[in-house]
Amino acid sequence: MTRPATRDDLAGLPVEVAPSLLGAHLETVVGGETVLLRISEVEAYHGLGTGDRPDPGSHARSGPTARNATMWGEPGHLYVYLSHGIHSCVNVVCGPEGVAGGVLLRAGEVIEGAAVAERRRRERGGVVRTARDLARGPGRLGDAVGLRHPLHDGIDAVTGAERAGARARLLLPAEPSAATTGPRVGVAGIAGTDAFPWRFWIDGDPTVSPFRWGRGAAEVAARQGDTPGVLD
């Protein structure tokens, strides 16, 4: 069972909120088409001045900009940003307003609207080999749920208010799934090592994305003695 998320649910620090989103549902209605996703993998990103140390992997590490403005707003809005000039990635804003923080939705299982999600993936040039691949990775997830940068950046997943022809709702589980933790995927330098073990996933879930090192992270990890597990 799930229930609608509230601002209070999402007012904690990203590393506190992130594991509570495992097993949560994200429902989107875009152009009249519904997709419902069960979240299986997330990553926490702290903003400037959040937590006990700066997060060199966060978009907000240098303060507010036009790009990251949504991260500094109310919790429960979705920060939808463009990665590598191609992929729209979806983050749940969390923490108090004015203190940037977010949880990146890295992967999930499409439990309603699979045909819609697959069509969207293929329209954007994606290859869908199996059902588990529909939203396995943040770019695929963004395509599957139909949220695009910049149209839907800032959409409110608490109230479900319409934005650019889309609605989104975040539904929390009665009991979050047990979380496994490790370094974040593809994040450069020390921010992509066990110094920041802020990736959370449901162990054994087939929709979880594979681990890969970011630029320079493997070298830093080798000096630290980090050996994160690598998923298939």
Describe this structure in words.
By secondary structure, this protein is of the alpha+beta class. It has one domain (2-177): 3-methyladenine DNA Glycosylase, Chain A, CATH 3.10.300. Helix content is 13%, strand content 27%. The protein has helices at residues 14-17, 114-123, 138-145, 217-224; strands at 2-4, 25-30, 33-46, 78-83, 87-93, 101-112, 166-173, 180-182, 199-201. Strands 1, 2, 3, 4, 5, 6, 7, 8 and 9 form a nine-stranded antiparallel sheet that branches. α2 (114-123) crosses α3 (138-145).
Task: Label this structure with key terms.
4 helices, nine-stranded antiparallel sheet, 9 strands, 232 residues, 3-methyladenine DNA Glycosylase, Chain A, single chain, alpha+beta
Radius of gyration, in angstroms, nearest whole number? 16 Å
CATH superfamily: Methylpurine-DNA glycosylase (MPG)
Helix content: 10-25%
Number of helices: 4
- Distance from N terminus to C terminus (CA atoms, Å) equals 30 Å
Largest sheet: 9 strands, antiparallel
Stretches where pLDDT is under 50 for at least 5 consecutive residues are none
CATH architectural type: Roll
CATH level-3 fold name: 3-methyladenine DNA Glycosylase, Chain A
**Tally of distinct domains:** 1
Instruction: List SSEs in N-to-C order.
Output: EHEEEEEHHEEEH
Regarding quaternary structure, what we see is single chain
**Secondary-structure-derived class:** alpha+beta
Averaging pLDDT over every residue, what do you get? 94
What proportion strand?
A: 25-35%
| CA-based shape | globular
CATH class: Alpha Beta
Number of extended strands: 9
